[in-house]
Amino acid sequence: MELVGEEKRIHALFSEARLADEQNTPRFAGVWNRAQSQTMRPQRAFKLSFVAATALLVCALVSLAWWSQRGQRNQNNAVVASVPSITTVGPSSVVQPAKGSEPAPLTRRNFSNRSRVLKLAARRQVVQLAAARKSLRDAKAIESWKSPTATLLVSSSDELLKSLPQLNQTVQELKSFLPNQPQ
Q1: What CA–CA distance (Å, rounded) separates 152 from 136?
Q2: Is a pLDDT exceeding 80 seen at residue 116?
Q3: Which of 89, 71, 97, 74 is nearest to 126 (CA)?
């Protein structure tokens, strides 16, 4: 197969383009050596800004934990202080002695334990009452909920669609509800 004039010119142009590409393209050995030298270079394990940001984050988390624990302690003390004196709960309903055992004589330590038990029972009752009120409030909210799109589902023909035809209605009256159909 011989190359004709136009084909020879195209062949020559492609050869020139290939030579220009070969001259501009770097050799593989040079590229490989540069890549190897970059991986051998040690990189810094930690940057100063990363260490500073981490230390700041740890300090913030520790202070937040300390603040929340301190707030809980103050809140618990406020709940105990706001609990009214309980007359319906006695030590016998909170602490039940074992059968056959005699009650210990009332000493300062036992009195302290009983008052602590009464405070815990009062606190437990307050928490249970608050939880019951909240669940009642949530149940009422769920019961009274209405879909925001319920009004979109109401149609003027709902009464027709939800009722059944009566036996005394004629076929002509029932056909009046149907669209006109060619016969």
Answers
A1: 30
A2: yes
A3: 89
